Amino acid sequence: MTPLRQRMLHDMQIRNLTENTQYSYLIQVSCFSRHFQRSPELLGPEEIRAWLIHLREERKLAPGSLGPTIGALRFLYRVTLKRPWSDEDFPLPKKPFRLPVVLSLEEITAFFESVASLKQRTILMTAYAAGLRVSEVVHLKVTDIDSQRMVIRVNQGKNRKDRYVMLSPRLLEILRVYWHDAHPREWLFPGDIPGQPITRFAVARACNLARQRSGIQKPITPHSLRHAFATHLLESGTDVRRIQLLMGHRSLSTTARYLKVATSSICETSSPFDLLPHVEPVQPPPSPPEYF
């Protein structure tokens, strides 16, 4: 390990960045350095610009995929190397705004019925019932289920924040059936490796297989269940601020995007077309006579 890499690693550890972020940043800087075959200390804004163009045009990365690269380079040059560079030296492409695809209650039911494994069905039901990220649901421990207070404790979710979410009575029944069948000890959903939880990739595979079995044409990922959780709460009249707390969003604007897909805010709004006086439909012209 080079002294610069070690120093950057120490800087990230001091600032308590997650292990995944540390690993991602080191990989990004390493790829950047290997591309130019020089130490990052000898590279500057022009090389950063050329690298981003290479990633977009040669590797065909989407704008949203460049975030980790720019974050890593900003950290390296501003924090570790203390270069007085501005945001313009790290151009971040504008990401297209896309609304989440939301499953209806009927589609959620059909999807769950298509999950054959009790364990996988319980995982996906927990993700939907509590609005959890896949990384949060796979890292649940048995002790995180508090049936006395009817809450689920989410330990160190995104941005290393703890929070509580509701424990659905129906979900508690399902969790008890699962517990009597699997008898998990530490991790609520243990993986194939002893002492480790199930992986996110295993949950994603089960999710994709269930979508194929259900025949639902909409794309479904574990995160789709989180989108459905927030949207269905909003449609049932839950306050946006409360949904923000349950979802663990830092910004209310992140939660407010579900207003754009909730039927309670779209379909219940009358179109001005309905206020117009009744207009008779245009009659089609008479058919020409037939001569043969």
TrEMBL record:
<dbReference type="InterPro" id="IPR050090">
    <property type="entry name" value="Tyrosine_recombinase_XerCD"/>
</dbReference>
<dbReference type="InterPro" id="IPR013762">
    <property type="entry name" value="Integrase-like_cat_sf"/>
</dbReference>
<dbReference type="InterPro" id="IPR010998">
    <property type="entry name" value="Integrase_recombinase_N"/>
</dbReference>
<comment type="similarity">
    <text>Belongs to the 'phage' integrase family.</text>
</comment>
<dbReference type="Pfam" id="PF13495">
    <property type="entry name" value="Phage_int_SAM_4"/>
</dbReference>
<dbReference type="InterPro" id="IPR002104">
    <property type="entry name" value="Integrase_catalytic"/>
</dbReference>
<feature type="domain" description="Tyr recombinase">
    <location>
        <begin position="98"/>
        <end position="271"/>
    </location>
</feature>
<keyword id="KW-0238">DNA-binding</keyword>
<protein>
    <submittedName>
        <fullName>Site-specific integrase</fullName>
    </submittedName>
</protein>
<feature type="domain" description="Core-binding (CB)">
    <location>
        <begin position="1"/>
        <end position="81"/>
    </location>
</feature>
<dbReference type="InterPro" id="IPR004107">
    <property type="entry name" value="Integrase_SAM-like_N"/>
</dbReference>
<dbReference type="InterPro" id="IPR011010">
    <property type="entry name" value="DNA_brk_join_enz"/>
</dbReference>
<keyword id="KW-0233">DNA recombination</keyword>
<dbReference type="InterPro" id="IPR044068">
    <property type="entry name" value="CB"/>
</dbReference>
<dbReference type="Pfam" id="PF00589">
    <property type="entry name" value="Phage_integrase"/>
</dbReference>
<keyword id="KW-0229">DNA integration</keyword>
